[in-house]
Amino acid sequence: AEEFSLMYPFFYRPMFEVIEDGWNSFLPKDAFKDLESMTDEWRLSEVNKDFSVCPSYPPLVAVPKDVDDDTLRKAATFRHSGRFPVLSYYHKKNGMVMMRAGQPLTGTNGRRCKEDEKLINATLRPGKRGYIIDTRTINVAQQAKARGGGFESEANYPQWRRIHKAIERSNVLQESLIKLVEACNDQSHSMDRWLSKLEASSWQTHVKEILTTACLAAQCIDREGASVLVHGTEGTDSTLQVTSLAQIILDPACRTIRGFQGLVEREWLQAGHPFRQRCAQSAYSNSKPRQEAPVFLLFLDCVWQILRQFPCSFEFSESFLVLLFEHAYASQFGTFLGNRTAERAKLSLPEKTVSLWSWVNRPQELERLSNPLFEANSLVIWPSVAPQSLLLWEGVFLRWNRSSRCLDEAYEEMVHIIEYNKELQNKVNSLRRQLAQLETEDPLLQTP
Amino acid sequence: MEHIRLPKVESVRLLDRVSPRRSRVGTLYLTATHTIFVENEAGVRSETWVLHSLVCSMEKQAASASGCPLIIHCKNFQVLHFVIPRERECHDVHLSLQRLSQPETYEELYCFSFNPNVDDEERRQEWDFLDLKADYRRMGLPNSLWKLSTVNQHYKVSDTYPADLFVPESATPPVIVGSSKFRSRGRFPTLSYYSKENHAAICRSSQPLSGFSARCLEDEQMLEAILRSNPRSDFMYVVDTRPKLNAIANRAAGKGYENEDNYSNIKFQFIGIENIHVMRNSQQKMLEVCELRSPSMSDFLEGLESSGWLKHIKAVLDAGIFIAKAVAEEGVSVLVHCSDGWDRTAQVCSVASVLLDPYYRTLRGLMVLIEKDWVSFGHKFSHRCNHQVGDPKEVSPIIDQFLECVWQLMEQYPCAFEFNERFLITIHSHIYSCQYGNFIGNNQRERIELGLRERSHSLWSYLWTNQADYMNPLYRPDHSQAQGLLRPSTAPYCFKFWRGLYNRFDRGMHPRQSVEDYLSAIQEETQQLEEQLASHKQKIAELEQEQGWKSETKTTTTFDKSPTAWALGTDLGLANTPQDYTGGFITSSPCQPKVPDSSLILQDLNQTPETNLSNGSDQESGIADLSCRSPLSEDSTRDPDSDEAAYSAA
């Protein structure tokens, strides 16, 4: 922990008043209370309380009520890094769920695990089937068998239908980011060069693929009325992209500022996305660290795409996404330090550093990050994934390449239009009250 | 009517372009002016109207068991995929439409039958709405430097130029006529834009007939006169918008470009905008990309790149910027030409004007600009837009590129333009629709001969009457972006694909909530609040002052209806339909709701000639649409048994 204790968050002392300690804002047991209010089919298991069953899981995870901890322990041995299937999202509308896990360790000789089958089958209603969304292509999943991994066979999981998608692995994504940033910095002023470099970076392809997979998961849950299990290889990257985006699509609560923080906590930080490894260097790195990958940035990009398509349905504005991007890579706060909950606990981050959420959840900051167009929208929002609909996230990738003055001015103008309207509404209301009062005071008006 | 071989076909299917599995069955009617598809399913009647003059091309594909496919491509980028039950019927519809969509004479054009029920006086007012002389007056002309010349009255000097032209004060008729003889189609150098702040001007012409060595004293005097009309400048730019190679090739045909040695104090410059044939092919390629069925991101980006379209848009904008900067920053006059001076020259002069002068960024200003630089200066609308059967090599989307340049600028300067994207799209649509007389013919002389002012209607007054639909809520005349010269960036990444125009009819691709409509609704509410505020204030003052007097009974309109209900209404209907994310994997999905799907076509109803082209009426239905929220979102609670069947079958 030597490398950590010298980091900025350990020296940073807040110059602002902490209204609410962000380290306690999104505890698993609180999230479970929400779940309990909707269903009694799930329980909070402490099987991982000392991080021994799954080092990258938090101490508390939600699992089907009828599955005991022993079953969980056995299932964990059958999943990559012990990441046994846990609850990611409960769809209140129809009671369907989304779970996530690591890949099953079937290996080349088709190993099976009754407990794993029992665990995921426990999430299905009698007679119903579910979908397994494997974020890898069938070829990649096949190849994983040689390294002890694999996928759920039809024979052993007859109640599940498997769908393979093609979200790229982290090293490919990192290459893509480097190429994209290089394209954005190209000074040649040639249109052909720009478009071909943009295309060659494949960044937009990744955005489309991730968003499409998330939409598919959401569609299975909301439209097909089926439960879904999502996994890739480790279950810490593409899996989390899909499960978190599906929740943005399905659950209006995730589109609020606080709800989105909760989502990042649950589906990224507590779910064990290795931020320290993935977000060490960003695009400019000579050493090309093997674990580096813009997995979280791609997630934010996809959220931005949905935000662009539903500009009135999010309580936060683009600036919140940019802020999270920045803090994931470099921050005075301890929130994104470490790779997993266990590591954070060992470093005593809650005691020794300040949480980003402590900073965000103050009135002045919330106001800065909020979207003036927001109107609560309780619907599922289905984004378009056509190439024509997906844009380059200028606010991040062209931020330092071009002046945003005119766009900023337009934003201010928009805020002004809305504020002025509110101001007038208040004035009219107060005058109306004054008028009503005057009228009642007027003796002649009372006696016609 | 004699061209209609078959007025009505039953059981025609209209396929959804994005997901062909969704199709609608209805009856196809052919009328003298429109193709109408009427869907009459479950008591819900929906109509799709397509103006014959908007039909660009048709493709009749080989018949299969399900029928004979007929794909109609429209000039407003709508694509309709019909399947007609019998080959024979398809053949007849195809032949009829082929004839109906390609009028052989001007008389057949829609503008001569379009009758919005206004009397002759009103019609006169429509046409008088825009007055080009007023625009020259606005520029401060005529003055001591520039005069109105009558030399082209009766179109004797150049039959493709307007009758009224501004020339340098010192340019005598012999100089003008002499110069015109040295220019293609007699299109001599004349004024397009004048900056009264610094006297710099944008002039335009066609190429000189210089060949390898020819020169013309009058033409040289003409340029000299232009230079002298800008007293503070000791040189002028001559901008040839063509690529240098093209210009050199023209020399062999006795045409070419100015030799700097023959003209005193000119700086000659090539710009390199490609010709109409390159532009036509480029747009064609881009449209093919737009029409791909579920393309990958690479398909799309590669296709966009290889079409070259954005490269051409950038070239036009770069040229406009060069000229605008010369005028505004250097105070130097510019003469612009290409070959004939009615395509690239029109583009570049008008783009420069938009950059230079905030007036052309207003609703009325853009109309004036199009009327001046395009209509009056003889952009060959009928040839370029293929209004009637003609040489396909004459067709080219030159005006599309100008409108797109304006749109690209709007993307960079959201507060600089009084109008919105819908305004540009509506203009685009009517340039091709032949519904109004404005763009019929190839030049002023032809339009006068056709008697368009007497026999057709003007788009400009229609747009002005409906201006509320075309206002940009972010525009304020006093905003800093609405002042002075625009200096846009032309780094390649600043250019975007114009989804709103080229994929206009693929509604699923567009943002499901419109910030602009939201803000417009708020502004409308604000206006009402201001009125209420004033009336409340007045009443309070009255009451306070005249206690004891019985004041009139107050009628307060309450204001609890959220303005956003309208703005969101239309969009959220669509919000509830997932796309085909599965690539056909989940085939069991019977739950694609019909309702929002049809909204795509329902909107087209608004485009019947008699009604508003914009979505003005959508706002009304917005509230009603909101009520569909719950049925739509509950749509997925289906019979669990059907799930079962589908999965086990799979």
TrEMBL record, chain A:
One family name in Pfam for this protein: Myotub-related
All residue ranges annotated as the Myotubularin phosphatase domain in the record: 22-397
GO annotation (BP), single: negative regulation of autophagy
GO annotations of cellular component type: cytoplasm
InterPro entries named among the record's database cross-references: Myotubularin (IPR030564), Myotubularin-like_Pase_dom (IPR010569), Prot-tyrosine_phosphatase-like (IPR029021)
MF-aspect GO terms: protein phosphatase binding
Protein family according to the UniProt entry: Belongs to the protein-tyrosine phosphatase family. Non-receptor class myotubularin subfamily.
Protein name per Swiss-Prot or TrEMBL: Myotubularin related protein 9
From TrEMBL, chain B:
Active site, per annotation: C338 (phosphocysteine intermediate)
A GO MF term: phosphatidylinositol-3,5-bisphosphate phosphatase activity
InterPro entries: Myotubularin, Myotubularin-like_Pase_dom, PH-GRAM_MTMR6-9, PH-like_dom_sf, Prot-tyrosine_phosphatase-like, Tyr_Pase_AS, Tyr_Pase_cat, Tyr_Pase_dom
Primary residence: cytoplasm
Regions that span the bilayer: none
Topology class, membrane: Peripheral membrane protein
Residue ranges constituting the Tyrosine specific protein phosphatases domain according to the UniProt record: 307-351
Domain of life: Eukaryota
Gene Ontology annotations of biological process type: phosphatidylinositol dephosphorylation
Location(s) in or outside the cell: Cytoplasm; Endomembrane system
Similarity annotation: Belongs to the protein-tyrosine phosphatase family. Non-receptor class myotubularin subfamily.
This protein's name: Myotubularin related protein 7a
Organism encoding this protein: Sparus aurata (Gilthead sea bream)
